[in-house]
Amino acid sequence: MEQLIKIMSEIRPDLDFEKETKLIDDDILDSFDIISIVSEVNEQFGIEINVNDLLPENFNSAAALYELITKMLNE
Amino acid sequence: MINNCLQYLEYNALNYGEKLALADENFGLTYKEYMEKAKIIGSFIAKKTNSTTNSPIAVLIDRNIASIVTFMGIVYSGNFYVPVDALMPKERIELIYKTLNPILVIDARQKDIAEEGTAKYEDILESAEIEEGLLKNIRDNAIDTDPLYTIFTSGSTGVPKGVCVCHRSMIDLVNSFEEAFDFKHETVFGNQAPFDFDVSAKDIYNSLKVGGTVQVLPKKLFKMPKMLVGYLIEKKVSTLIWAVSALRIVSDFKTMEEGDVPKLENIMFSGEVMPVKALNYWMDKVPDARYVNLYGPTEITCNCTYFEIKKRFNDDEMLPIGKAFKNTRVILKDEKGAVIKEKGKVGEICVMGTCLALGYWNNKEKTDAAFINNPTISAYEQKMYATGDMGYYNDDNDIVFASRRDFQIKHMGHRIELGEIEVALNAIPSLDVSCCLYDKENEKIVCFYQAKEECKKEIVMELSKKLPKFMWPNVYVHYEELPMNKNGKIDRVKLSETFKKSEEK
């Protein structure tokens, strides 16, 4: 989780990812952020987040995204 | 005689009154409702301002059709609209208001409480009535060179410039588009571009011209491409006039590998160079659509050239921007002002015709610098807009974009002056001086800054108060001392080389 927060904060230093829970619903992240986060996460965690995973419920918070990563790592 | 864009709206309201004209995630309006609501807003403004005309009225916009209805309402009042994204930092909005001095601000956003000092869309519709006499009088006195809208764009000195476009230029645009692309009554335009970008004007006015439908696509979809494709299918969208970056979200994530694909007739794009790889993905998945590369800055009313893609390009080939639209002249000019005819020689892309904007609002100096007299003509005056874009002719006599003459960049569909970012950066107290470059390959704005210590977080926090998100640098490189060249200026060449080397590692 720490690593994920670091990735996200590197891309958006202005946000507190421990607290945000509506990153998509409230239009806080833009498409550029999503693309940057996905490519960093894929690289650093060695997983392949694909288009079917790009859903608001997976990206609304760091915790949700972490859950997705954990699930993919266990598969 | 068509001399006002509202005539298209009125024609549709009369002939296809019950047809769906505008729709967003929550609401829809027929042409009749669209016109009536616009007339109410126009009447309200006319009464409130004592029939002041040709003055700027700002509109706080979001992704709802109320924004478009408000635009037309303002046009009914004989004034012109200026879309303002309320999510922009306050300082930037104030900077725009300072240049603009709007006579009124209308809040068209879907929010319960309107911004202080503004008139709220719903309140106007509830309280005001149509005053046909007033509106008729305004229209009788209108001419087609009256301003229609002003759209603000990045300015290199740190102050945004308002590009002021008149009715006649827009009438010219929709006529040339209809002729080139035969849009139909059945066309459903899937609007992607925010209303403070003139790309969206193509959806609004082309649809008005043919009596089509505009589906305003929610912003959220452009982060979640699978949902976007589903939405296009559900809403039966047939025509996309999008920023390249928006089309690329679908292709980069390989969104159409399984399931249905939207039935699209036209896929048109502009804003930056379309990578052929992304285009080929689309052409594979949606083979029956017409693909068009559109080119042009806001100053010439959306687009001045187009290139219809009728063959497959290789991934390493460059898509041309093509040839001029009807009633538009596009030339290439060398440094001495002479017109270039030969193939392959690079010159500045210059545009003439009815499409030229009236200039930059309240900024004669910038207007005179960019809207010059055609240097090859001396017997009479013909205005010419020098785009700052460099291009050349290929073997088919299509123009190919080569580069920029200055420090303007295109990033995620946005036109940005690096100078404007630097002005904001240099105002940050703990930062001595800075310089921005664009890393084209990785599509990132790189900020080199000189400060005692690394302070990225502080920089971003400060920038967020002044610049919209798309202007924030993506990479920050800290220097205790930035390299200088012989002229005592920051050495951009050296910075760029050092950065490239560090990236290669």
Q: Which helices and strands occur, and which strands form pairs?
A:
The complex is a heterodimer of chains A (75) and B (505).
Chain A: H1 2-11, H2 31-45, H3 56-59, H4 62-74
Helix pairs in contact in A: 1-2
Chain B: H1 6-15, E1 20-23, E2 28-30, H2 31-48, E3 56-61, H3 65-76, E4 80-85, H4 90-100, E5 104-107, E6 119-120, H5 121-127, H6 132-140, E7 147-153, E8 161-166, H7 167-181, E9 188-191, H8 199-210, E10 213-216, H9 225-234, E11 239-243, H10 244-252, E12 266-270, H11 276-285, E13 290-295, E14 305-308, E15 323-324, E16 328-333, E17 347-353, E18 359-360, H12 364-370, E19 371-373, E20 383-393, E21 399-404, E22 408-411, E23 414-417, H13 418-426, E24 433-439, E25 444-450, H14 456-466, E26 475-479, H15 492-504
Parallel strand pairs in B: 1-10, 3-4, 3-5, 5-6, 9-10, 9-11, 11-12, 12-13, 25-26
Antiparallel strand pairs in B: 1-2, 7-8, 8-18, 13-14, 14-15, 16-17, 17-20, 19-20, 20-21, 22-23, 24-25
Structure, explained:
The complex is a heterodimer of chains A (75) and B (505). Chain A starts with a helix and ends with a helix. Chain A has a single domain, classed as ACP-like (Non-ribosomal Peptide Synthetase Peptidyl Carrier Protein, Chain A, Orthogonal Bundle). With 75 residues, chain A is mainly α. Chain A is globular. Chain A is 56% helix and 0% strand. Chain A is built from 4 helices and no strands. The mean pLDDT of chain A is 93. In chain A, helix 1 packs antiparallel against helix 2. Chain B has 505 residues and is an alpha/beta fold. Among the domains of chain B are: 165 residues, Rossmann fold (3-Layer(aba) Sandwich); 77 residues, Luciferase, Domain 3 (Luciferase, domain 3); 97 residues, ANL, C-terminal domain (GMP Synthetase, Chain A, domain 3, 2-Layer Sandwich). In chain B, a hairpin with a 4-residue loop joins strand 1 and strand 2. The longest helix of chain B is centred in the first third of the chain and has 18 residues. Chain B is globular and about 70 Å long. The mean pLDDT of chain B is 95. The chains are: A mainly alpha (75), B alpha/beta (505). The interface between A and B is medium-sized, with 20 and 25 residues.
